[in-house]
């Protein structure tokens, strides 16, 4: 594997995964023949054009969508429903407005237990929220609220953490800071992370592998290993070369997609 030493046990395995939506207008193939093996503790980012099925893929891995072809297994067990072994962070923080920062992080865990209190305090420190334990979500900025959401997800020690464009609504400066916070927490916990993004820099700065997808239907175009140490310098030659490789793959897909759309119809209505 790339980037760091990981267990030889492939914790998350996706085999021949396909997803089709049926509507009054017919069948729409969203994902086709997705195959991935992600060892415990690996950080993977998924990038691709809008409509390539990135979010659908996360929902299937999370057990939120069981209507698909193919298999998804976690620790050898089929994924058929949501569970505490799978965490999910959305673009919106989804904190409980009536709970404080520490209560949100500990949600469903009792702060009366010393072990829980210690874990919450550690997470508050890891996400740079010292001094805000008693603060309510309405008093937080977007970036601060998302830090709390990250802490809440990691404190439960999920086997895999799924993140659907968690920093998409943040400004560039806050986004870069949040990426640093996420890496700090991940390096401490070594949880398997799959993060969907539209941002090439984000994909390369965070991941050990970048999964580049094509659309209509969503397929894996290529997987780019990012064999760079953390933290990564965005201006380094190695970083820029890997960024260019991911960009080239995305641009090649757009050229191919445009060629298909522009191709003339044959006598039978096909291309």
From TrEMBL:
Pfam families associated with the record: ABC_tran
SUPFAM superfamilies in the record: P-loop containing nucleoside triphosphate hydrolases
ABC transporter domain boundaries: 12-242
Xref: PROSITE patterns: ABC_TRANSPORTER_1, ABC_TRANSPORTER_2
Top-level taxon of origin: Bacteria
MF GO annotations: ATP binding; ATP hydrolysis activity
Gene3D superfamilies: P-loop containing nucleotide triphosphate hydrolases
Key words, A-Z: ATP-binding, Nucleotide-binding, Transport
Residue intervals passing through the bilayer: none
Name of the protein this chain belongs to: ABC transporter ATP-binding protein
Source species: Alicyclobacillus acidoterrestris (strain ATCC 49025 / DSM 3922 / CIP 106132 / NCIMB 13137 / GD3B)
């Amino acid at each position: 594997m790339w980037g760091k030493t990981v267990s030889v046990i492939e914790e998350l395995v996706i085999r021949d995964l396909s997803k089709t939506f049926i509507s009054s207008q017919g069948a729409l193939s969203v994902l086709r023949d997705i195959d991935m093996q992600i060892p415990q503790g690996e950080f993977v980012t998924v990038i691709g054009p809008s409509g390539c099925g990135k979010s659908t893929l996360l929902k299937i891995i999370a057990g939120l969508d069981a209507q698909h072809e193919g298999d998804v297994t976690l620790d050898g067990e089929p994924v058929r429903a949501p569970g505490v072994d799978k965490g999910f962070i959305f673009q919106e923080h989804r904190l409980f407005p009536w709970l404080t920062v520490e209560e949100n992080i500990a949600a469903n865990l009792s702060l009366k237990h010393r072990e829980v209190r210690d874990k919450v305090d550690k997470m508050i420190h890891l996400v740079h929220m010292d001094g805000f334990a008693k603060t309510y979500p309405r008093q937080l900025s977007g970036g601060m609220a998302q830090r709390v959401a990250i802490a809440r997800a990691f404190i439960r020690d999920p086997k895999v953490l799924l993140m659907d464009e968690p920093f998409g609504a943040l400004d560039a400066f806050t986004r870069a800071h949040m990426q640093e916070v996420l890496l700090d927490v991940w390096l401490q916990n070594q949880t398997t992370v799959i993060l969907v993004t539209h941002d090439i820099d984000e994909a390369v700065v965070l991941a050990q592998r970048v999964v580049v997808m094509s659309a209509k239907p969503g397929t894996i175009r290529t997987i780019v290993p990012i064999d760079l140490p953390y933290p990564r310098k965005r201006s380094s030659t190695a970083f820029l070369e890997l960024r260019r490789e991911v960009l080239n793959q995305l641009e090649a897909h757009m050229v191919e997609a445009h060629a298909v759309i522009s191709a003339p119809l044959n006598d039978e209505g096909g291309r």
